[in-house]
Amino acid sequence: MSINVSGVTKRFGDFVALDDVSVDLPTGQLTALLGPSGGGKSTLLRIIAGLESADSGTVTIEGTEATHLPPQKRNVGFVFQHYAAFKHMSVAKNVAFGLEIRHRSKEEVKKRVGDLLDLVHLSQFADRLPSQLSGGQRQRMALARALAVEPSVLLLDEPFGALDAKVRKELRDWLRRLHDEVHVTSVFVTHDQEEALEVADEIVVINDGRIEQIGAPDDLYDSPASDFVMTFLGPTTRLGGVLVRPHDIDVLTHTVPGAVAGRIERQLRVGFEVRLTVATEDAQQVEVTVTRATQRQLDLHEGVEVWLTPTTGVPRAEIAAV
């Protein structure tokens, strides 16, 4: 394993940020630390980086005991949400900074900076100041700077959190392609479920200072270990006393054995989706998502009586009993 965290606990006064956390983060993978604000994910990342010290437990990076090593001796690259750029330096000088303080030769620095700016598609902006770049370009510059010193581990703390939705989506795609090219072990913090599901090879779900579940995106989505994991990894609703995803409910216009009867109270179209709120006979409100084509085919609208059943073939693990 590239990173081993064993029995790490961290308190800030009376607040327990991490409670006896142990996790192995695989070499060469892109791992997401996912969880709500205040859950402990950024604290764990900062302890791995050496920016925070654990009250107890150990951190091993690439086989080296790093628990008490300063950040500069851990061979990690760190990318912050707000870039942390040197505002008075050009893009090229920002990327070169880590190499220059390590006294690399001018020729090596020039070649490495040129290669990285090509890699992140910023070669034409080498002489600009960070203030002259867009938010997405500044974040790519920050990634190039972190990669310049050839770290064994790349750590990213909500790297796209300050960007608008369209730019975030573009950079998620770009980060995944970049990782596949450079193959550096990468760990990124996010509270964005879609981001984690789309980009990561493995997801570590953290809540209240504890690890809830670790696994591949599909495994966590299809087989959540708890109601918390299921509700955090996408929308959920309750049907007949169980937790189920709104898109995993079949809507029928006739009764069948075991179906829950109800009436459509509201409908909202969001692009190709139609979101229905169904009031059932037992006074529950069930949220259901269907496609626009299904809504038209069944002529679903407010006031129509319907019957609801879990979609056939949905894994039982995805329906967590109350």
From TrEMBL:
This protein's UniProt keywords: ATP-binding, Nucleotide-binding, Sulfate transport, Translocase, Transport
Matching SMART domains: AAA
InterPro entries per record: AAA+_ATPase, ABC_SmlMolc_Importer, ABC_transporter-like_ATP-bd, ABC_transporter-like_CS, Mo/tungstate-bd_C_term_dom, P-loop_NTPase, Sulph_transpt1, Transp-assoc_OB_typ1
Gene3D superfamilies: P-loop containing nucleotide triphosphate hydrolases
Domain ABC transporter, chain residue ranges per copy: 3-233
Entry GO terms, CC: ATP-binding cassette (ABC) transporter complex
Protein name as annotated: ABC-type quaternary amine transporter
Organism whose genome encodes this protein: Nocardioides mangrovicus
